[in-house]
Each structure stands twice: as C-alpha cells, then as structure tokens.
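Work Package 4 report. The design task specified in the project plan requires that, given a folded chain encoded as structure tokens, an amino acid be chosen for each position. We show below one input record used in the internal validation round.
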C-alpha cells in the first residue's frame, strides 16, 4: 500500500497555511490546487498569474488560461495577471512563502535535482532555480523510487542540481520526511506503509 498521486497532493495541501502565497511546480504539485479547499491560500504561477484556481471541469477549459506547465486551469474572482519580470520579482524578493516542487532526486542534505537528465532534450531549468533560492519553504513532492524500484532519496544526487540544501520537507507515495542535521527524519508513513518499508526504500541516511 502507498498513497496515489492525488493522496500525495492532498497531504501536501495540509502543509499550506492561511495567508500564504504558494508556487506549485510542474507534475504532481499542480494537483495540490484541487485540495486547498477553504484555506486562504493564493497560488502563484511563474508565467504571470496570482490567484490560480483548481483544474477546470472537462468541457469548461479555456486554452488561453494555463499554468507554467501549460495545463489549463481556472481563475478566481481575485486573480491578477502580470509579466514574467513581475512574477520573478515576487519570487526573488521573498514574497512567496512556499514552493511545492517535483523532484527527480533529493539527497540527505536537502540538495534538489529536478530539471534535467543528461543526454535528454530539455527546454531549460525554468523557474526552479529562482524558486528554491527565493521562497521561504521548499517541499519536494515526488515518487519515492523510480520505475526500476531504485530510491530517489539518495546519499548524493547523481543528476545536475537545481539547488543545494534547499529542501525542507519531502512528501512521497510512501510517507513524509524532513531534512534535518545528519540526514532525513521520518515524520509520517503513508497508509499501509511501515517504517521498515520506508527505510528499505530509502538510500539516504534516516536519523
């Protein structure tokens, strides 16, 4: 047993606090928008949108209304639009309280690799480097292992880094871990997952 992607996103949404401005990365993090509920959370998208709503109902999509991952989204009655320079001014200026980002790898020191695999065609790092440097808290929302069953929570990242010592909390399909002095600390196991199973699936040191 483990959490599916929607359960992971729902768990990540519980981390967000009233009054926060929050950026959601591409991939699983975009699903968090569906689980904000009644909280006073303002979602920011680096392509120039403040006040991002949940995904639209099928048939109600507006092709001109997209997030940074080119997915169709909805607007709210308080949504504001602006250019990329203003968007990144918010991020670099420390105005965004939290970023929930996908990850290919995270190591026990909180280093994050989430933008490229050498040899594969990529469009660029996007806003990830600015986000990990400028926001108050970084949550990595990711699968615990790759498709071969190898851990993605490592002693050392093998892929090019997005940022060093930037991740505060990791939420995976197997549980929740914090980056602390000396390694990772288990906060919570996913439904039906034991601590022993979490240990077995984690290469990084658990303290």
């Amino acid at each position: 047993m483990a959490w599916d992607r929607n359960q992971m996103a729902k768990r990540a949404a519980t981390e967000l606090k009233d009054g926060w401005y929050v950026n959601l990365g591409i991939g699983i993090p975009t699903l968090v928008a569906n689980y904000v509920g009644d909280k006073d959370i303002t979602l920011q998208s680096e392509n120039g949108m403040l006040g991002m709503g949940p995904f639209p109902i099928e048939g109600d999509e507006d092709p001109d209304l997209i997030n940074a991952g080119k997915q169709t989204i909805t607007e709210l009655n308080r949504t504001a639009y602006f250019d990329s320079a203003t968007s990144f001014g918010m991020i670099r200026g420390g105005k965004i309280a939290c970023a929930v980002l996908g990850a290919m790898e995270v190591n026990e020191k909180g280093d994050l690799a989430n933008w490229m695999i050498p040899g594969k065609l990529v469009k660029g790092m996007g806003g990830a480097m600015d986000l990990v440097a400028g926001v108050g808290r970084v949550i990595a929302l990711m699968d615990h292992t790759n498709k071969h069953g190898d851990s993605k929570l490592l002693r050392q990242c093998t892929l090019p880094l997005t940022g060093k010592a930037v991740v505060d909390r990791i939420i995976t399909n197997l549980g929740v871990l914090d980056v602390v002095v000396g390694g990772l600390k288990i906060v919570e196991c996913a439904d039906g997952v034991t601590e022993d199973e979490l240990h077995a699936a984690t290469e990084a040191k658990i303290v």
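The chain has one domain: 5-200. Validation will be extended to a larger panel in the next phase.
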